[in-house]
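R.M. (postdoc): so does anyone remember the format we settled on? I'll just put the structure tokens first.
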């Protein structure tokens, strides 16, 4: 894609200076103790598991990762006490997206690799992210912890996906319908999770990263004029992402405010309802504030151009570096196996978008071409998603699709969806034992059982093991700790307010799969045998209720 170059960039191009052009930027926090290699590797792996749990689809591309690693190494060579080169992850997406996280990774969207026109432009994008890493900007921006995977957030993402393609999502625990109802939305859901997780910088942070990135680019011998098209691409991508996140925020707020207490509610009911509404709304606002405006608080591409131009002029040595640029770019990304991989990924994205629409037949030509490509899935296991979904939902070849699910779920970068997909075929065959094994494997690899507990419950029930299903339900109730909204309601319930506590978070999905609330059932059973110390607990909750009433002006 060609991008028009504004007049200031014509001037900037004439000042494309080499390694001697001024001091390289050195943003950061001096004296910060370095992380041990072992801890760093563990943190990087933890971040990857977080991403895979949210169905972000990654491409297996060691050659491309190595190429990006070489560029980053060259850029960091000019930095005093430079951090270790981040680990690169290639996300399969049609969005122009690059972001850093707090754990030593840089996520590069495959569309970035398709759109950039030179190694200089790729280096500009990487240098910008490295500047954020050096300045520790991401430490306050990573939303993996602030926006955890819960049934509420998953439903929000599902609604956003549905609004794009009008696909219906499976109800909690309906694992047998996952392949048919939800698989086509996996890629779109992963993109939206990427929107939510990617840091949203403020204007000052972006300015710092721009100038420090330009210094790194020049010191490494790249052409700073490459920032021209990069700024334009980033600006366009920010506008799209900002609109998506704002739509998501509005839907989240509507859901949070839907529980407004009725006028005739009792004092206790009104208290809990107002707590729920207030806390949910606050949580939504906390999660989305700043995200919805991602891109609206930035300088315009023209303003960023001017700032970089002035910086280049002020730090110029007066020499122009005429070294030939991008010696490896064409060989690495525009020919051979890597070009085939990026082209196949583009086709797979188009197929998934088509199947997530009302007219999946519109991409039949693309699907036929990909299926006819010899060894297509050998390029990267993630291509199994598009090919298998097409075979199942359009060609009606479930046996072949199941082989794709098996191949994908057995790979290192298999996301949550891959295990659910594989298990769905086992469920259809009533092979509940192996279905449970598949889900247990996924939970172990991703390091988070709560992501799979509702489906495990459905499998246990389907196999007739009701005791196991109940145990899993109780395990699910323990996945969240602390004073949750549900726990708050239970405390107030004991004061005589008779508030009907509703399960929240992943537990709500587990309850839906189980058909009853196991914690509530146990509480009912214990009512005939009051626990010791119940009076003390009742006194505590009465005092807590009084404090809450006063705080809320009741």
């Amino acid at each position: 894609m060609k991008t028009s170059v504004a007049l200031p960039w014509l001037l900037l191009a004439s000042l494309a200076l080499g390694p001697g052009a001024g001091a390289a930027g050195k943003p950061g926090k001096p004296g910060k103790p370095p992380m041990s290699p072992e801890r760093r590797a563990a943190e990087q792996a933890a971040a990857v598991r977080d991403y895979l749990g949210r169905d972000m689809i990654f491409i297996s591309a060691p050659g491309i990762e190595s190429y990006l690693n070489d560029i980053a190494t060259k850029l960091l060579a000019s930095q005093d006490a430079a951090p270790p080169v981040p680990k690169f992850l290639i996300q399969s997406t049609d969005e122009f997206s690059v972001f850093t996280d707090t754990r030593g990774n840089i996520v590069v969207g495959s569309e970035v690799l398709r759109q950039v026109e030179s190694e200089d432009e790729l280096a500009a994008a990487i240098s910008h992210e490295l500047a954020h890493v050096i300045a520790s900007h991401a430490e306050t921006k990573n939303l993996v912890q602030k926006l955890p995977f819960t049934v509420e957030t998953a439903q929000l993402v599902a609604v956003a996906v549905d609004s794009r393609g009008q696909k219906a999502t499976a109800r909690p625990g309906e694992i047998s319908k996952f392949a048919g109802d939800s698989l086509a939305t996996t890629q779109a859901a992963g993109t939206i999770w990427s929107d939510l997780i990617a840091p949203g910088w403020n204007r000052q942070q972006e300015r710092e990263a721009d100038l420090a990135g330009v210094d790194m680019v020049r010191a490494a011998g790249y052409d700073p004029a490459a920032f021209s098209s990069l700024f334009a691409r980033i600006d366009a991508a920010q506008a799209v992402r900002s609109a998506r996140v704002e739509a998501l925020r509005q839907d989240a707020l509507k859901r949070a405010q839907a529980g407004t207490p009725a006028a005739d509610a009792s004092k206790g009911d009104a208290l809990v309802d107002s707590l729920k509404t207030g806390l949910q709304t606050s949580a939504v606002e906390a999660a989305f504030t700043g995200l919805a405006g991602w891109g609206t608080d930035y300088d315009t591409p023209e303003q960023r151009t001017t700032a970089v131009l002035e910086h280049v002029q002020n730090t110029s040595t007066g020499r122009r570096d005429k070294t030939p640029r991008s010696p490896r770019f064409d060989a690495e990304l525009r020919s051979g196996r890597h070009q085939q991989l990026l082209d196949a990924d583009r086709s797979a994205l188009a197929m998934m978008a088509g199947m997530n629409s009302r007219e999946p037949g519109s991409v039949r030509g693309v699907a036929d071409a990909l299926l006819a490509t010899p060894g297509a899935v050998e390029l990267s296991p993630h291509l199994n998603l598009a090919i298998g979904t097409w075979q199942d939902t359009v060609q009606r070849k479930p046996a072949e699709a199941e082989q794709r699910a098996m191949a994908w779920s057995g790979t290192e970068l298999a996301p949550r969806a891959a295990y659910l997909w594989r298990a769905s075929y086992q469920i259809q065959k009533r092979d509940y034992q192996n279905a449970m094994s598949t889900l247990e494997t996924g939970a172990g690899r991703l390091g988070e059982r709560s992501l799979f507990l509702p489906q495990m419950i459905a499998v246990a029930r389907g196999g007739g093991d009701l005791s196991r299903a109940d145990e899993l339900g109780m395990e699910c109730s323990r996945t969240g700790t602390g004073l949750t909204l549900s726990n708050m309601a239970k405390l107030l319930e004991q004061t005589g307010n008779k508030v009907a506590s509703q399960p929240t978070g992943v537990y709500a999905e587990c309850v839906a799969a189980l058909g009853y609330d196991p914690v509530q059932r146990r509480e009912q059973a214990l009512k005939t045998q009051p626990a010791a110390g119940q009076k003390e607990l009742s006194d505590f909750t009465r005092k807590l209720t009084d404090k809450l009433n006063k705080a809320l002006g009741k």
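R.M.: ...and that's the designed sequence above, right after the tokens. Also worth knowing: The chain has a mean pLDDT of 75. The first strand starts at residue 58 and ends at 59.
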